[in-house]
Design the sequence.
């Protein structure tokens, strides 16, 4: 009961805040976005679309695209939820037309995302699938964000807020039907990627029993770690000698010891998420049926 009362107070507080924001900013929207059927600003309505990652996420990807592009079964592995979309788009190869990047910073015309939104992609349908195309003004803002470098502000780190990592694809505890082509791990912070290459990333499979305690675990060989984005940091782990076999996997990035991943000031990552620097980042996923 105590908790329910607290939640109620919180949501009243938030509603009050968003009404305040809507009144302050709705005058600039001009395109009907964020308005209800009667043309009034919606509570919790999105802020006007501007060429920043946060604004595009809030106004386009989250409300329009994540109905399909979310979770382990997202089409073509493209997750557009807030935790995944930057890592899944910027400098990432399209699955449909692999020679193109989904978003190529500085070049909206060559970015597959734009081609899909404008209906001039070589493969598949216009996005959002089965709906009216996005208004030209909306696409123009996404173009502008890409033309300006497709940046996303880095969340700064400190001893009280050390760098964190999270699995994008596979995400933590995903069960995949087929082998992933890559393991994408991202941070909202900037990690010192010069330290990442040297054995800091390890991938182990369970040995077919779904458990990592028997001593039959197998270190996955032939891994390559590449940096898809420096700041915020996106790391991509690929296997060069064939697909990830059906099994349970554990991905570890050292947050302790001499090979610890750290931020650019040398402060180790908060790998275990306890709010303090240090501790290994560990994440599990499964390919096919492990047993
Ligand atoms: C109704 C489900 C649905 C919605 C909503 C949707 N998509 Fe898609 N998307 C798909 C499917 C299915 C495919 C693969 C088939 C195709 O391309 O037609 C796809 C493919 C894509 C691709 C190609 C990815 C690659 O690697 O080649 C991009 C980019 C994309 N979508 C972006 C978006 C964006 C941005 C939005 C929101 C504006 C969106 N989609 C909304 C279902 C959807
Ligand atoms: Ca085992």
Sequence:
């Amino acid at each position: 009961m105590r908790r329910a009362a607290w939640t109620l107070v919180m949501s009243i507080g938030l509603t009050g805040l968003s009404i305040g924001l809507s009144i302050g900013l709705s005058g600039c929207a001009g395109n009907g976005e964020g308005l209800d059927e009667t043309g009034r600003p919606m509570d919790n309505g999105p802020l006007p679309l501007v060429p920043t990652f946060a604004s595009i996420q809030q106004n386009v990807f989250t409300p329009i695209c994540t109905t399909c592009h979310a979770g382990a079964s997202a089409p073509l592995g493209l997750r557009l939820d807030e935790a995944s979309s930057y890592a899944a788009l910027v400098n990432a190869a399209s699955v449909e037309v692999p020679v193109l990047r989904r978003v190529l910073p500085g070049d909206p015309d060559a970015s597959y995302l734009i081609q899909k939104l404008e209906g001039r992609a070589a493969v598949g349908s216009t996005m959002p699938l089965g709906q009216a195309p996005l208004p030209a003004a909306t696409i123009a803002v996404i173009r502008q964000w890409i033309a300006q470098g497709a940046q996303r502000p880095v969340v700064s780190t400190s001893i009280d807020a050390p760098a964190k990592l999270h699995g994008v694809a596979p995400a933590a505890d995903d069960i995949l039907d087929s082998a992933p082509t890559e393991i994408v791990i991202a941070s909202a912070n900037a990690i010192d990627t010069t330290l990442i290459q040297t054995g800091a990333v390890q991938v182990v499979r369970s040995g077919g029993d779904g458990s990592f305690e028997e001593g039959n675990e197998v270190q996955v060989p032939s891994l390559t770690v590449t940096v898809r984005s420096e700041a915020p940091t996106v790391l991509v782990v690929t296997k060069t000698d064939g697909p990830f076999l059906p099994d349970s996997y554990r991905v570890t990035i050292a947050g302790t010891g001499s090979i610890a991943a750290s931020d650019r000031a040398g402060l180790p990552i908060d790998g275990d998420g306890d709010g303090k620097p240090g501790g290994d980042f560990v994440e599990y996923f499964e390919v096919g049926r492990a047993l």
